[in-house]
Write a structure and sequence with these properties.
Helix content: under 10%
Structural class: mainly beta
Largest sheet: 7 strands, mixed
Order of helices and strands: EEEEEEEEEEE
Oligomer: single chain
Shape: globular
Length: 118
């Protein structure tokens, strides 16, 4: 069964870039018709989809975050990356990576807490 593991700094200073890694095991990020998303949940709020990278390598982002977001991948490491620039305390959240399969079933990582604070 595929497993996803998020990793990265738990604390980021305002105006800096948040960088997270999603390492995938027991499944290839290049398998046809799978999408790899980043989602976050701010404290006390609901889930917010950030964007995805498809099996083709094409990325698509939430409109409100598009100017600050980059999702990329390293196929040799079977990993997906999130970069969110110019962060503010409003970007504080638990960040998740998730896979969507051709049947629209989502598989989630356990999530990682990121706090934006000076």
């Amino acid at each position: 069964q595929v497993q996803l593991q998020e990793s990265g700094p738990g604390l980021v200073k305002p105006s800096q870039t948040l960088s997270l890694t999603c390492t995938v095991s027991n499944g290839s990020i290049t398998t046809d018709y799978y999408w790899w998303s980043w989602i976050r949940q701010p404290p006390g709020k609901g889930l917010e989809w950030i964007g995805y990278i498809a099996w083709t390598g094409t990325s698509y982002y939430r409109a409100a975050l598009k100017s600050r977001t980059s999702i990329s991948r390293d196929t040799s490491k079977n990993a997906v990356f999130l970069q969110l620039s110019s962060v503010t305390p409003e970007d504080t959240a638990v960040y998740y990576c998730a896979r969507t399969d051709p049947g629209s079933i989502w598989t989630w990582g356990q999530g990682t807490q990121v706090t934006v604070s000076s």
